[in-house]
């Protein structure tokens, strides 16, 4: 259920052992199964854990139907959530990372079965009536329990529990259609990544040869026929496209790559139309004008007008600086080409930005990466937790059968007085068939089982870092270091959370606050006081020079306004596509083209449809603005709490005790104000927006 899938103390003794993960066998190196779950020694074990979860949950549903006390109802609801989420989350991680196709297929089947069961929970009036009873009951004294009851009731109603049978069935059909659209959208991207063939091979820089595939074609030269000309095929998947656009001097190669990467898969135009229409119909059945209005009701923003006013305010602040940056890039291109009437093209941006940064700060990006081997970055994690929280990240041997790949590492977050606070799997190396990006996956949330026992969280951090063709170890570009620290911020949010209920554990917070910890920890990847503790040259062991870090910091700010403007554009597209619909279906490409012109200085390229590969429209539908909220919140927290002494125990204690340990158990605006002081949030049009002052000051914007 929306309520239960997101978020679950045992009140009943049961013959079913639902606390599968990280069992004692795993700690004592006995043979176990995936993630320390004995049943997952084989792929078919997924069937068993689904069976057990459904049986245990049905037992709890029966208990709730007898209407026990309010606190017992909330405890039982949370245990259902805990039971179901462990299956959902472990299957999701397996589907995205396991190299064995049989495990992936069984995990997919488990996901489908448990989601069918979730529909039963979503529409169970007995559970809804029990939650309503608990919310009204004055004996429910814990503020967190009251918040769980209110949240569960709202999520039930958001799912249509109160509707008549006909409308409820229609909502169910639409949710199935939405799930199919999301799956089809991703499948189309995987099946049709697109490619361009480039001849001659000399047009591709040598440092990109590990990303492209050799091809050849027949040609003729003079009287000679069937000469095999060598070239390269660029598969236009995101990481390759990014590298090609940054490093390829040839305009035509960049143009071909940009256009192809933004014009496939064409089939997703229709898929996106169906997705938007289905979400719009659900919102109307629920009594809302638009999907945006429906989706935002439980967020800090609360309404489309609040988000719109925030985006307009930020856009006005960033526009003058963005124009300056755009014009400086255009002038640089004209000087380099000696063509004084030449304009900028979208495929110029990444290449010229890198060239200008390198020139202005004498930056050699290969030198930068030599200080950031993957192993040293993991040492950086250890520096952070020890300095900030007085804790250690301790390597733990994996039990036989526990891991899904030989490269996976496992660590415990350990506090001397509190013991192990959580476990983290690190799966950071690239391999075929693996989830293509970087992500934080929950396996088990934290919750209080009794006055003396706490179920500690288990998570996985998944990335895709690869060795270069000429390297024996994995060395990261600094943008990858930034991403790695971002994901570690999510990990710390999960591991340090100490909520009573799984429902609010870790990142299970208001949607528009979820990215704040991750954005905050990005700052640690740029501060010399932090970097000098772990960033060492892979061969000499020398500490990264302060002068180099200063140059990196300067280059980061060179086009910060344009980059922020791009994020505002993305958020505006998201809000508009899911906004009030007067045409059905809307022309998504026209919307994107108009908004690009309105919010950026770049032109739309005819024939392209960037929105067909922007998967945030699926999972962050109507919520992409959250990234911008997070940037503003994180900037204020860094300036007020961390900047003076980022590695002090005092700083870490504030971050932990005033923010991270509460998960979603407290009002998000109150948490932010408790940590950073009054003024970090503002009330506007009935909702909450971030104060943008710190971010504007950081980026030298004229607010």
UniProtKB/TrEMBL annotation:
Keyword check for NAD:
no
Name the GO terms of the biological process aspect: peptide metabolic process; proteolysis
Source organism superkingdom:
Eukaryota
* This protein's GO CC annotations: mitochondrion
Q: Domain Peptidase M3A/M3B catalytic, which positions?
A: 246-678
Task: Supply the alphabetized keyword list.
Answer: Hydrolase, Metal-binding, Metalloprotease, Mitochondrion, Protease, Transit peptide, Zinc
Q: How is the cofactor bound?
A: Binds 1 zinc ion.
Main localization (coarse): mitochondrion
Q: Which family does it belong to?
A: Belongs to the peptidase M3 family.
Q: What is this protein called?
A: Putative zincin-like metalloproteases family protein
Recite the lineage of the species: Eukaryota, Viridiplantae, Streptophyta, Embryophyta, Tracheophyta
């Amino acid at each position: 259920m929306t309520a239960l899938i997101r978020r679950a103390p045992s009140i009943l003794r049961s013959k079913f052992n639902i606390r599968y993960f990280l069992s004692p066998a795993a700690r004592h190196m006995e043979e176990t199964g995936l993630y320390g779950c004995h049943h997952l020694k084989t792929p078919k074990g997924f069937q068993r854990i689904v069976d057990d979860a459904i049986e245990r949950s049905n037992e709890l549903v029966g208990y709730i139907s007898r209407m026990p006390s309010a606190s017992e109802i909330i405890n039982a609801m949370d245990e259902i959530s805990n039971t179901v989420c462990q299956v959902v989350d472990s299957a999701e991680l397996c589907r995205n990372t396991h190299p064995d196709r049989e495990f992936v297929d069984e995990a997919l089947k488990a996901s489908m079965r448990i989601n069918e069961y979730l529909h039963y929970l979503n529409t169970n009036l007995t559970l809804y009536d029990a939650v309503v009873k608990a919310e009204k009951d004055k004996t429910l004294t814990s503020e967190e329990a009251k918040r769980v009851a209110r949240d569960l009731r709202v999520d039930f109603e958001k799912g249509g529990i109160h509707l008549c049978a006909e409308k409820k069935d229609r909502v169910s059909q639409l949710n199935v259609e939405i799930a199919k659209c999301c799956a089809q959208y991703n499948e189309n991207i995987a099946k049709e990544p697109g490619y361009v063939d480039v001849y001659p091979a000399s047009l591709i820089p040598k440092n990109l040869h590990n990303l492209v595939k050799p091809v050849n074609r027949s040609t003729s030269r003079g009287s000679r026929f069937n000469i095999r000309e060598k070239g390269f095929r660029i598969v236009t998947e995101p990481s390759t496209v990014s590298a090609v656009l940054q490093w390829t001097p040839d305009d035509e190669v960049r143009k071909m790559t940009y256009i192809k990467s933004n014009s496939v898969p064409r089939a997703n135009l229709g898929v996106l139309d169906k997705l938007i229409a289905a979400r719009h119909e659900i919102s109307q059945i629920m009594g809302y004008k638009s999907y945006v209005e429906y989706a935002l009701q439980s967020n800090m923003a609360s309404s489309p007008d609040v988000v719109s006013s925030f985006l307009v305010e930020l856009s006005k602040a960033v526009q003058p600086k963005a124009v300056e940056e755009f014009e400086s890039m255009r002038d640089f291109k004209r000087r380099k080409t000696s063509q004084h009437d030449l304009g900028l093209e979208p495929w110029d941006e990444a290449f010229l930005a890198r060239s200008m940064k390198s020139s202005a700060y004498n930056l050699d990006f290969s030198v930068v990466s030599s200080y950031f081997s993957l192993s040293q970055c993991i040492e950086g994690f250890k520096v952070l937790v020890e300095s900030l929280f007085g804790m250690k990240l301790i390597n733990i041997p994996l039990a036989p059968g526990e891991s899904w790949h030989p490269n996976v590492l496992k660590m415990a977050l350990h506090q001397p007085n509190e013991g192990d606070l959580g476990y983290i799997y690190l799966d950071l190396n690239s391999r075929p068939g693996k989830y293509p990006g970087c992500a934080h996956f929950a396996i088990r949330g934290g919750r209080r089982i009794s006055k003396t026992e706490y179920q500690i969280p288990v998570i996985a951090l998944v990335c895709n870092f690869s060795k270069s063709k000429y390297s024996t170890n994995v060395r990261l570009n600094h943008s990858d270091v930034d991403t790695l620290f971002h994901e570690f911020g999510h990990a710390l949010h999960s591991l340090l959370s100490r909520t009573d209920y799984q429902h609010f554990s870790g990142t299970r917070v208001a949607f528009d606050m979820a990215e704040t910890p991750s954005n905050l920890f990005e700052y640690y990847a740029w501060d010399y006081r932090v970097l000098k503790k772990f960033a060492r040259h892979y061969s000499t062991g020398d500490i990264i020079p302060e002068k180099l870090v200063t140059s990196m910091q300067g280059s980061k700010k060179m086009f910060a306004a344009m980059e922020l403007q791009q994020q505002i554009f993305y958020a505006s597209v998201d809000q508009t596509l899911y906004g009030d619909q007067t045409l059905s279906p809307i022309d998504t490409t026209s919307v994107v083209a108009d908004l690009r012109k309105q919010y950026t200085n770049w032109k739309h390229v005819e024939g392209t449809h960037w929105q067909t590969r922007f998967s945030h429209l699926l999972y962050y539908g109507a919520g992409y603005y959250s990234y911008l909220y997070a940037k503003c919140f994180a900037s204020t927290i860094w300036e007020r709490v961390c900047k003076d002494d980022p590695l002090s125990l005092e700083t870490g204690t504030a971050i932990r005790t005033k923010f991270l340990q509460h998960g979603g158990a407290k009002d998000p605006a109150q948490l932010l104000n408790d940590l950073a002081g009054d003024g970090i949030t503002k009330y506007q049009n009935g909702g909450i927006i971030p104060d943008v002052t710190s971010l504007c000051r950081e980026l030298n914007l004229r607010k």
